[in-house]
Design brief:
- The protein is an alpha/beta fold.
- It folds into 2 domains: 148 residues, 3-Layer(aba) Sandwich (Ribosomal Protein L4, Chain: A); 41 residues, no CATH class.
- It contains 7 helices and 6 strands; from the N terminus they run ββαααβαβαβαβα.
- A 6-stranded mixed sheet has the order 2-1-3-6-4-5.
- Helix 4 packs across helix 5.
- The longest helix is centred in the middle third of the chain and has 17 residues.
């Protein structure tokens, strides 16, 4: 399939052929959901922690005698039933991540790219280059009508372009190896450079 290529100033720069096996799939929500869930779970810190009854600072002395009080039997004030006692089966430091095969992760990225193509939210630009001025780039982005956009470049992002884009709200810039399902779906517009298209097609073959 062919798609027109534009420049950042809005001018035309020819067209590019996109592979049907990457950009022409029928998007499946279940695949995208599984990959996004895998990404977000791996990003979760898992540093939540509470103290159990063996960790709270209390004496282990028996608080009152076993029999004859008319109350329940207790051994220590650190029991979960008491205020200030340990927490029973509370959260502990752990990883929330789970496994997902490379083949499935690659398939998820293909479906994310296809979803953007099907929705008409995919734009191809000639190159992501700038003179390093944020104001100039911000005006170009505004003129193109991109409010929440992700720009994916080739193996490396142009340093001046990255610096210019850094302070523009709603604009993210990633190298091709950083392309992921969550960031692609999060933004309204996906912008690929020619180099980015080549790198993604080589990565997803």
């Amino acid at each position: 399939m062919k798609l027109d290529v534009i420049k950042l100033d809005g001018g035309k720069a020819g067209s590019v052929d996109l592979g049907e096996d990457i950009f022409g799939l029928e998007p499946r929500a279940d695949i995208l959901h599984r990959v996004v869930r895998w990404q977000r779970n791996n990003a979760q810190a898992g540093t939540h922690k509470v103290k159990t009854r063996s960790e709270v600072s209390y004496s282990t002395k028996k608080i009152y005698r076993q029999k004859g009080t008319g109350g329940a039997r207790h051994g220590a004030r650190s029991a979960p039933i008491f205020r200030g006692g340990g927490v029973y089966k509370g959260p502990v430091v752990r990883s929330h991540g789970h496994e997902l095969t490379k083949k499935f992760r690659k398939l998820g990225l293909k479906h994310a790219l296809s979803a953007k193509m099907a929705a008409g939210e995919l734009v191809i630009i000639d190159a992501a280059s700038s003179n390093g001025k944020t104001a100039v780039l911000a005006k170009q982005i505004k003129d193109l009508g991109w409010k929440r956009a992700l720009i994916i470049d080739g193996a490396e992002v142009n340093t001046e372009f990255a610096n210019a884009a850094r302070n523009i709200e709603g604009l993210d810039v990633l190298p091709s190896m950083g392309a992921n399902v969550y960031d692609i779906l999060k933004r309204d517009t996906l912008v690929l450079t020619k180099a980015g298209v080549e790198a993604l097609e080589a990565r997803l073959k």
